[in-house]
């Protein structure tokens, strides 16, 4: 194990050095678009948190990521149905909400069929004439 350690460590060092440069570029791009007042507010919150984290670990919760969950396919479908029903009072009209799920179901069936055809094609014996 020790024989290849030098090469492995050198490769990992080069990778880490490149990763630092890439992450610095990504940070700078992100930093450019953040408003100045938000930066000031975040820095103030961070200073307060760092100074009081020893006495109250709960202040570290500001570092938790808060991401709004995207609506599911069903929730979007229900929303589109409600919007479509509000516009088209007659039940004979098909709204966008009925066409989109049908199209998605057709695409899913096509993909499943393609996968099955490829699987069967691999299992078929080749005939030599």
Helix content: 55-70%
Q: From N to C, what is the helix and strand string? A: HHHH
Name the overall outline: flat
End-to-end separation in angstroms reads: 53 Å
Task: Please work out how many helical segments DSSP would assign.
Answer: 4
For the secondary structure, the number of strands is 0
- Largest β-sheet summary: none
Strand content: under 5%
Structural class by SSE content? mainly alpha
Report the radius of gyration as a whole number of Å: 28 Å
**Low-pLDDT residue spans:** none
**Mean of residue pLDDT values:** 82
Quick structural overview:
The protein is mainly α. The protein is built from 4 helices and no strands.
Notes on the protein architecture:
The protein is an all-alpha fold and 129 residues long. 69% of the residues lie in helices and 0% in strands. The chain has four helices and no strands. The protein has helices at 5-33, 36-52, 73-87, 96-123. Helix 3 packs antiparallel against helix 4. The longest helix has 29 residues, at 5-33. The protein is flat, with a radius of gyration of 28 Å. The protein starts with a helix and ends in a 6-residue tail after the last helix. The model has no long low-confidence stretch (mean pLDDT 82).
Which features does this protein show?
129 residues; mainly alpha; 69% helix; flat
Write the layout of secondary structure elements.
Elements: H1 5-33, H2 36-52, H3 73-87, H4 96-123
Helix pairs in contact: 3-4
């Amino acid at each position: 194990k020790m024989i290849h350690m030098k090469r492995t460590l050198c490769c990992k060092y080069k990778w880490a050095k490149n990763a630092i440069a890439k992450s610095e570029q990504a940070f700078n791009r992100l930093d450019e678009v953040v408003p100045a007042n938000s930066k000031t507010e975040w820095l103030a919150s961070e200073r307060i948190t760092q100074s009081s984290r020893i006495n109250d670990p709960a202040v570290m919760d500001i570092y938790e990521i808060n991401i709004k969950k995207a609506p599911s396919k069903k929730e979007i479908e229900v929303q589109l149905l409600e919007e479509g029903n509000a516009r088209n009072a007659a039940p004979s009209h098909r709204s966008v909400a009925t066409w989109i799920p049908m199209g998605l179901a057709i695409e899913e069936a096509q993909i499943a069929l393609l996968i099955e055809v490829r699987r069967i094609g691999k299992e078929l014996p080749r005939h030599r004439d």
